[in-house]
Write a structure and sequence with these properties.
The chain has a single domain, classed as Rossmann fold (3-Layer(aba) Sandwich). A seven-stranded parallel β-sheet has the order 3-2-1-4-5-6-7, sandwiched between helices. Helix 6 links the parallel strand 6 and strand 7. The chain has 225 residues and is of the alpha/beta class. It contains six helices and seven strands, in the order βαβαβαβαβαβαβ. The chain binds NADP nicotinamide-adenine-dinucleotide phosphate (NAP).
Length: 225
């Protein structure tokens, strides 16, 4: 069976990705900051390996190659992400934005680079969970400067990545999961985590080289940059 590698898999959208791929018999490599306390993830009875990954730490301290392993990967899902500061009025907010940039924008690219040979081995796919809030064209309401900037940066990075990896047969794209009922999305969000992930899995399944480098909603519709 194919292998999927998912970050931020102990709760929310990441956990649901693990549940659905595992239920379909995929081999799953899942990361969590603290695997020992990831009770719902550890309870999934399938071919699921959990590895520790905490992006709050020093990038130099992370063994990126050890983390990704040596087995070919069919689908890499960069899911872990943070909202960051909702305001940008103080130096403390600015410091928190730097942290959010590290987690949402820089770490995904570092991880993708470490994983590339393993994904190229299967001519697989690399997707990043972005957000419509990272769309500059869609921003009519302002606010959320940190989150929007980190996801816009992720979109720009992943677009370049998609171009850089296509000669190796790898298809990369960014996805918007919808406004989803998770800790981040809140209880008022209209989309269930099950529907969001089922939709994104269909989009990932349908990612052809022609759709590489795009930014897609969980229903497959293209989102303007
Ligand atoms: N929910 C929505 O409506 C929505 C909308 C658009 C985009 N998204 C994006 O979808 C992705 C998943 O969102 P979600 O709603 O599932 O969020 P969530 O419920 O807040 O879960 C976030 C996940 O990221 C992990 N994470 C956070 N900081 C981390 C760090 N420093 N190192 C490693 N892992 C870290 C969390 O681990 P811990 O449990 O250890 O904190 C958790 O597993 C995110 O990239 C988010 O920006 C969500």
């Amino acid at each position: 069976m194919p292998t999927v590698f998912i970050t931020g898999a102990n709760r929310g959208i990441g956990l649901e990705f693990v549940r659905q791929y595992a239920a379909d018999g995929w081999t799953v490599v899942a990361t969590a900051r603290d695997p020992d306390s990831a009770a719902e993830l550890n309870a999934i009875e399938s071919d699921v390996t959990v590895r520790a990954l905490d992006l709050d730490g020093d990038f130099f301290q992370i063994d990126w190659n050890g983390l990704v392993g040596t087995k070919p990967i069919d689908v890499f899902i960069n899911n872990a992400g943070v909202m960051g500061p909702t305001k940008l009025d103080t130096i403390e907010h600015a410091a928190a934005m730097v942290h959010a940039l590290a987690v949402n924008t820089v770490a995904p690219v570092v991880l993708a680079k470490a994983m590339l040979p393993l994904v190229a081995a299967t001519k697989g796919k690399m997707v990043a969970l972005s957000s419509k809030m990272g769309s500059i064209a869609d921003n009519g309401s302002g606010g959320f400067i940190a989150y929007r900037a980190t996801k816009a940066g992720l979109n720009a990075a992943w677009r370049s990545l998609a171009i850089d990896v296509r000669d190796q047969g790898v298809v990369a794209a960014t996805l918007h999961p919808g406004w989803v009922q998770t800790d981040m999305g809140g209880a008022n969000a209209p989309v269930t985590v099950e529907d969001s992930v089922a939709g994104m899995r269909r989009v990932i399944e349908g990612l052809t080289p022609e759709r590489a480098g795009g930014f897609y909603n969980y229903d497959g519709a293209a989102i303007p940059w």
